[in-house]
Amino acid sequence: IQKEVLEIQESVSKSRRPLVLFAQADVAASLYYLGEFKGAEQLQAQAISLRKEIYGSMHPDVIRAMERLSWTLTIMGNLEEAESMHSQVLEMSREKLAAVMDFPYLP
């Protein structure tokens, strides 16, 4: 059913795109918990792209989506790619926190 909802949401106009994000996240989470990591990885990557398009690359939702994908990659054994993404998430989180806290540098 979730896959059907996602297909319907993807066919609607761009003004409804945030709804697609929720549907993608639900289906990706279901696939992940069912052990269908390849399918989860593909949806998570699509979700990152769409979130970047809607919110910009430094939005907290983008960072969280990247973190979820990095854990999926870890479980799949794609350790180099996972480590790279974990590093990106950490750096983006530091930058975001520094901007919010108004500190010039966070160690």
Compute the gyration radius: what is it?
Answer: 15 Å
What proportion of the residues form beta strands (DSSP E)? under 5%
Biggest beta-sheet profile: none
Give the overall silhouette: flat
Helix content: over 70%
Let me know the number of strands: 0
Reading the helices and strands in chain order gives HHHHH
Unreliable stretches (pLDDT < 50, length at least 5) are: none
Helical/strand content category: mainly alpha
What is the average of the pLDDT values? Answer: 85
Describe the structure.
This protein has helices spanning 2-10, 17-33, 37-55, 60-76, 79-101. It has 107 residues and is an all-alpha fold. It is flat. The model has no long low-confidence stretch (mean pLDDT 85). Helix 2 (17-33) runs antiparallel to helix 3 (37-55). The N and C termini lie far apart (46 Å). The longest helix is centred in the C-terminal third of the chain and has 23 residues, at 79-101. It contains 5 helices and no strands.
